[in-house]
Amino acid sequence: MTDLFPPALLPGADTQPLADRLRPARLVEVVGQDHLLGPSGPIGRMLAAKRLGSMILWGPPGCGKTTLARLLAAEAGLTFEPLSAVLSGVAELRKTFEAAAKRRAQGKGTLLFIDEIHRFNRAQQDGFLPVVEDGTVILVGATTENPSFSLNAAVLSRAQVFVLKRLEEAGLALLLDRAEALMERPLPLTAEARALLLTLADGDGRYLLNLAEALFAAKDGPVLDAAGLLASVQKRAPLYDKDREEHYNLISALHKSLRGSDVDAALYWFQRMLLGGEDPHFVARRLTRFAAEDIGMADPAALTQAIAAWETYDRLGSPEGELALAQAVVYLATAPKSNAVYRAFKAAAKAARDTGSMMPPKHILNAPTRLMKDIGYGSGYAYDHDAPDGFSGQNYFPENLPRTRFYDPPERGFERDIRKRLDYWDRLRAKRQETSDE
């Protein structure tokens, strides 16, 4: 039993939460972060060299950010000063800085831990730069948000960002073993229900221990199977914030799965977004964008399918309308892919910017006034419908701009037929121009 956790934690008070009673007392007991804390990990190397620097700990809830900061302070012999960006303001920061400055004068260091550091505004973040820069404090910030978006560049230049991982099944299983050893009895679960419990935790160790604590509270209850467990605990919603980074991560995963023609992965990410509370209208909008950007003329019906799914959802709402969106996901994932229209659009835009205000050739300009006719507007225009094969082969580019191929369809999907047409017109154009030159 004592091999699993520190003996000092055994006599925890009954009112103390299980997750708190099982907090590691040494860095070696931290679960799931060996990539940072191991001998070859960046924090492990810092501690070995006895040169702890400021850092930002970025990771999902329940992965041990606060515990890690506390243990780093103990390992480095620093006073641990915790603050929450939700509850603290400038006054609390100033008091903490003053206390740290006094300790420094006495030869003692301070580790300033700021939980949810992303919630400090820009001015507040700037406020602790001087004390970080002069060594008054070593800053350890914890955040669930992407630091690139939520923290000042000045803060990021003074602190390394370390990414903590969500706990994997082996780490979660170890936490359950520690909990059972502390409680001196096993969880009342079948093997199947125990595996399900690990899945329900979704990588969050604190959430797992809270679930375990609720199960331990039912001392004389029956042993639960998977169905009984689901009936006894509140299932956790998948981690997803539709206004923050995870929103962009999942839509990127959906888009790239569609582009890679992996219909099953695309359906998975589509469902992850819906289960996380994403607005289906946003998904519909992105599916429509995908149809235009990544399929285009390879299958012109793709855009129609995407818009039809969007309109169907508008008529039916949730959950019935979500099936139409799923149908669009399947159609788009299995359609032939081409970004030829997208590339042509970008290339034509660049050419338009680079060439300034070149006039169209006069022969394709209308001449509604006599003056315009006199200066050559419309002169020499060939009406394509009257030309052989319905194709005149005239030049429609500005006179000083060489003919450029913007749209280059690949040999797949419907664009195979389009390429045949373009090649046919290229041959006719060359033939017409040879005739006109003679």
Give short descriptive properties of this protein.
52% helix; single chain; 21 helices; mainly alpha; elongated; disordered N terminus
The separation of the N and C termini measures 99 Å
Can you count the beta strands? 5
What does the main sheet amount to? 5 strands, parallel
User: Gyration radius, to the nearest Å?
Assistant: 32 Å
Q: Kindly state the mean pLDDT as a whole number?
A: 84
Q: Percentage of helical residues?
A: 40-55%
Low-confidence stretches: 1-13
**Residue share in β-strands:** 5-15%
- Order of strands, main sheet, comes to 2-3-4-1-5
Give the structural class.
mainly alpha
Count of helix runs: 21
Question: Can you walk me through this structure?
Answer:
This protein is mainly α and 438 residues long. It is 52% helix and 6% strand. The chain has 21 helices and five strands. It has helices at 18-21, 34-37, 42-48, 65-76, 90-105, 122-127, 129-133, 147-150, 153-158, 169-183, 191-201, 205-217, 226-232, 245-259, 263-275, 280-295, 301-316, 320-334, 340-354, 370-374, 415-437, and strands at 55-58, 79-84, 110-115, 138-143, 160-163. Strands 2-3-4-1-5 form a five-stranded parallel beta sheet, sandwiched between helices. The longest helix is centred in the C-terminal third of the chain and has 23 residues, at 415-437. It is elongated, with a radius of gyration of 32 Å. The model is unreliable at 1-13 (pLDDT under 50).
